[in-house]
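Q: How would the structure tokens look for this protein?
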Amino acid sequence: MRLLRTKNFRQIVTVATLALSVLGASRWAFAQAKGQWQRAYTGDGSVIEVNTSNLKFAPERVLRAEFRTVFSNAESTGGDRAVKYKTRLETIDFRLTDRRYRFVEISLLDPGGKLIQTKTADGSEDWRVLKPGGITERLFNTASSFTPLGAWKVIAYRFAEGESKEAKTTPELDRLVGGNVRLQVDRIDVGGRVCNSPSFQDNDAPYESFRQLGIDWKSIGVKREDARAIDLRCEGGGGQPSQSLLIKDNSKQEMLMLWDGVFLVLKRTDGNAFPVSHGIGLPTLKRQQP
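A: Here is the predicted structure in token form.
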């Protein structure tokens, strides 16, 4: 099986590290419909978007993101010039410890949105270094600007155990209200207390974690079906609690951050914004002709 030609500056992966699998077109039609795509880069004859609803923190401090490249003109796969694709879907793992990346899956769709073929990595491929100023680094910067990462403001606090505010309120907690919280892949800043080596990981079984922590869903005002839970650990000290929890309420523009037994209610202050490159003063996405 011949490797697909990417015809751009990024070489995808070698045949030895990929296994070919063909999936039903209905799966991809569903995935495309449910995705929340935002533009990340505009190049020469193509647009790259990121699926903001599918960003995940995996073990070993890995951020997994899905990108969609839509070309102005249909491109040949290289193996058969009669078979052309208009869209490329790429799932990329970014390793936050050393800013490296590797491809997890690459799929090509024809102009009608039907899947042509998919290549899935077998896990043995090497991690690649993010080239400073390169397109992949810009895609990483875009992916790492979405919730829960970004700039927030503390607007209130709630008690995990359902106790009344009067029972536990302190001047220290009150001083946090109105303060800024900055969550980044390599740094967390909460009211001047800094963690320089944070670790994020999506929690796929938050109910058990809540039970162990004694958290009452009703007291924090979040419905289970609307919640995304992310475990947060501070490995770099700096006065942060060593273990915390982020809860994104998908029904509201709020996020909760567990802080010494109290949930800080956070509201986004940067609008979830990220810089979109339009090629002005930057290298555009060039593609080699077959």
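The CA atoms of residues 206 and 229 lie 6 Å apart.

Residues 1-33, 273-290 have pLDDT under 50 and may be disordered.

Upvote if useful.
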